[in-house]
Amino acid sequence: MTDQVGANEAAAAQVCSFLQRRREQIAQRWADASLFRTVFTLSREEAVEACKAVVDALADVALSGRPEDIAAPAFGTVRDQLGRMAASRARAGFTPAQISEEVAALRAPVVELLRGEFTDSSEATAQEGVLALTVLMGSLRLVVMETALSAGEELIARQRLQLLEVATPVIKLWEGIVAVPLIGTLDSARSQVVMESLLEAIVAQRAQYAILDITGVPTVDSLVAQHLMKTVAAARLMGAECIVSGIRPAIAQTIVHLGIDLGTILTRAGLADALAYALAQQGIEVSAHRMARASTR
Amino acid sequence: MNRAAAGHPLAVPVLALGDVLLVTLQGELHDGMAEQLQQDIAQRIARSTVSGVVIDISGVDIVDSFLGRVLSDIAAGARLMAVRTVLVGMRPAVAITMVELGLTLPGLVTALDTERALDMLATAPQLAAVSVPAERKEARDAGLP
Questions:
Q1: Whether complex ipTM tops 0.90
Q2: Which residues in chain A are contacts of B92 at CB distance < 8 A?
């Protein structure tokens, strides 16, 4: 058992010294590999430098004696660079499997070089060395994939946040009348944002009427209805009257079929109807300007 | 001299603006204060000509079920004496919390701020009336003088 551990350590140390000795050669070979060549298109020197950084990191990981540890601190130094490379390949339309394949292709030239070193050495040591190197390259592949995927997750989270902010504008339609055109599916997080921005707007605009337009909401189920009712109740507590507009015939039928009671909510067919109601309640009358029309004819 | 003026240090002040009573709640309302406030308002309504009560809760950080019930009770008591109650100045965060807790204060009339509430009380009664009992009360109220 201790022999095995000792052999592993010896192999790792061997791989480390090999990587450090052949740093230049490995970097030159990797620079020709499709992964580095296509990412660093500006100059070959840049690609070689990037390759050297990766080789150094691998040597450090091998030195630490845990080639299978993808959380090794040595990987941290190249994680950013690997992430950028993976992102660049992903932008070029490569699937994660294809990127992984490209990283795997880096293994062959290194193993070839290592085998070349061992022609005079005994078989067992050579096998150990190649095995350790293979494990190390496998870890590198995992690190690249992990970095790429976590970058994707970050992007998704950021976009979700942007969607929340962008998709809920509160529009002042008239003095004391604000409207929120709701577009897309209403989930709990979005309805919370809608409620907050609507209430803030009611305070800021001193609005007496708030119109929630659901023309852009594809389906209304009991959960969406519940969100609507909550928003209406919150607006009422603030002293504003809420009108839900944009109820399409299909949605009206769905609401009736589901047995949702919207009796406590003021509803109108379209945004125009809701605005007309709010204006009428404020005693504002909209009419054609007869004088202007008479003068033009 | 009512009891609030008699020097209860913890009592909520009830101000008279013309024929409207203005109550400004600040911070937390204890059981004793709530009861005191209800009595004060009822006595002021009974003693002088009051057309409406405005309760300002802009200085209140949280409205729980207790405060919600107190407010409903005050409004219900005032309604029995033909006086409308308007709740004003609720903050957005408070409104959201209340809705999440399921406290929607049915039967209470709300307004954005004190100015709006005074306008509301000054204009035609049916504007301020939301629930059916309030409308009936106001119809009767209008018929009285």
A1: no
A2: 196, 199-200, 202-203, 234, 238
